[in-house]
């Protein structure tokens, strides 16, 4: 049985342990809360953002759902579908599912999976 101090120490280290776990994943990962606020991102996410002029758009503290809602019109229908689906999942009104959607850059056609 752990004493109170051991539990407190483990809880204090939890964010660092979670960050290390996320950084071990090669895919771009963002941890968001129920309102869509980005709580933590992994190194792959940070590298992708830096290479694609992502700035603070989808970094810790930003609202991922707001970013998705404001994507350019050429990505409109798919980004609206992705945004609506994410909102349903976060609200607990839909089961998790995989959704592919475009997120093109000026020089590269890309599709992401959420």
Describe what this molecule looks like in 3D.
The chain is of the alpha+beta class. It is built from four helices and four strands, in the order αββαααββ. A two-stranded antiparallel ribbon has the order 1-2. The chain is globular and about 55 Å long. The termini are far apart. The model has no long low-confidence stretch (mean pLDDT 78).
- The average pLDDT value, as a whole number, equals 78
The parts where pLDDT drops under 50 for at least 5 residues are none
Structural class: alpha+beta
Number of helices: 4
The portion of residues assigned to helices is 40-55%
Share of β-strand residues: 5-15%
Main sheet strand line-up:
1-2
What is the makeup of the main sheet?
Answer: 2 strands, antiparallel
Secondary-structure element sequence? HEEHHHEE
**Taking Cα atoms only, what radius of gyration do you get, to the nearest Å?**
16 Å
How many strand units? 4
How far is the N terminus from the C terminus? 39 Å
Tell me the overall shape.
Answer: globular
Name the features.
114 residues, two-stranded antiparallel sheet, alpha+beta, 4 helices, globular
Helix/strand layout:
Blueprint: H1 4-23, E1 30-32, E2 38-41, H2 43-51, H3 64-69, H4 76-91, E3 100-102, E4 111-113
Antiparallel strand pairs: 1-2, 3-4
Structure at a glance:
By secondary structure, this protein is of the alpha+beta class. It has helices at 4-23, 43-51, 64-69, 76-91; strands at residues 30-32, 38-41, 100-102, 111-113. The strands form 2 sheets. A two-stranded antiparallel ribbon has the order 1-2. The chain has a two-stranded antiparallel sheet with strand order 3-4.
């Amino acid at each position: 049985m752990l004493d109170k101090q051991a539990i407190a120490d483990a809880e204090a280290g939890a964010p660092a342990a979670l960050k290390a776990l996320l950084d071990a994943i090669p895919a771009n990962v963002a941890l968001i809360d129920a309102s869509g606020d980005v709580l933590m991102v992994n190194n792959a996410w940070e590298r992708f953002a830096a290479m694609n002029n992502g700035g603070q758009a989808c970094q810790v503290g930003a609202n991922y759902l707001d970013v998705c809602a404001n994507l350019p019109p050429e990505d409109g229908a798919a980004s609206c579908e992705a945004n609506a689906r994410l909102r349903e999942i976060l609200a607990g009104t839909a089961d998790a599912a995989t959704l592919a959607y475009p997120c093109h850059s000026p020089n590269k056609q890309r599709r992401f999976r959420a």
